[in-house]
Specification:
The chain has 283 residues and is an alpha/beta fold. It has two domains: 102 residues, Four Helix Bundle (Hemerythrin (Met), subunit A); 174 residues, 3-Layer(aba) Sandwich (Rossmann fold), CATH 3.40.50.10470. The protein contains nine helices and eleven strands. The strands form two sheets. It has a seven-stranded mixed β-sheet, sandwiched between helices. A four-stranded mixed β-sheet has the order 8-5-6-9, covered by helices on one side. β2, α7 and β3 form a beta-alpha-beta unit. The protein is globular.
Length: 283
């Protein structure tokens, strides 16, 4: 299961950072079904497999923080035997999953007050927290028109569009990424998720920066929603991922190069609010 999860994360079969963190945590449970001669062997295996999961996506802050939390919780407890180490692992995994899910739910619930008076939203990429925020707003009696960018090159926005189209209260339109500026004058608010915020920079799916720039030029507020744990300090060095050219171009590139970065950097001064489980941060 661990190898399969590493491959799934690496190939971006799972998109939302909170879902990635949960799946990676669950994958470590596979170790509790294996036999180990000593506690030291178990702890080495836990650390090695956790490292493999983190390397699958070096830019995922949630993935890194949750994996470190599990490994450190077990190691710092200095278990006397393998059985105890396995029990601690199960407990740490449960705690991490509960923390990720509850943080996402609280952030989404807080975001409702930000989007309640908006008629038209524009979102980018696939974010389970953004989806939860819209669902919470629908439950509160609101309805929206939503523009969703395709989010090339993986077309992650298509998944978001399909989810939104299942809701009667949503009138959803899928647009190409480059059309975001064209439609911005019709938008009341841009609502996106986040990979992480480091110092004064939001790192999110490639294409977020030009959308935020177009929004600023049109006086459209930009709201980011995500867990407070995605505010990270110098302990986490964001590392962008340059993905395979085959995601952009099926045939081989002959005589030219293909650049395919996974994320871009948006200065926080282009944002209006960041909504997390612990509050609303204004910029």
């Amino acid at each position: 299961m661990i190898d399969e999860t590493v491959e799934e994360i690496s190939e971006m079969q799972t998109h939302s950072s909170s879902v990635v963190a949960v799946k990676a945590a669950q994958a470590l449970r596979d170790l509790t079904d294996r036999e180990y001669p000593t506690v030291e062997d178990y702890l080495r295996s836990l650390d090695r497999n956790s490292s493999a999961l983190r390397r699958a996506n070096p830019s995922h802050a949630s993935l890194h923080t949750t994996q470190h939390r599990i490994v450190n919780t077990v190691s710092d407890a200095e278990p006397d035997d393998v059985a105890t180490a396995k029990e601690l692992t199960d407990e740490a995994i449960d705690d991490v999953i509960d923390s990720v899910e509850s943080s996402k739910d609280r952030a989404a619930a807080r975001a409702v007050s930000e989007i309640a008076d908006d008629d038209v939203l524009l979102t980018h990429d696939f974010s389970s927290t953004v989806l939860a925020a819209i669902d919470d707003a629908i439950e509160a009696g609101h309805s929206f028109e939503v523009y969703v960018t395709e989010s090339r090159p993986r077309f992650l926005g298509r998944k978001m569009t399909r989810h939104l189209s299942e809701r009667d209260e949503i009138d959803v339109t899928l647009i190409v990424d480059s059309a975001a500026g064209h439609f911005m004058s019709q938008v009341d608010r841009v609502l996106v998720g986040m990979d992480c915020i480091v110092d004064d920079t939001l790192y999110n799916r490639i294409g977020t920066y030009p959308i935020a720039t177009a929004a600023a030029d049109n006086d459209v507020p930009v709201t980011v929603v995500g867990a407070a744990a995605k505010y990270v300090d110098g302990a986490f060095a964001f590392e962008n991922e340059n993905r395979s050219p085959s995601e952009v171009l099926r045939e081989p590139a002959e005589g030219f190069q293909v650049a395919n970065p996974a994320y871009d950097a948006t200065p926080t001064h282009l944002l209006d609010t960041v909504v997390t489980d612990d509050g609303v941060h204004e910029y």
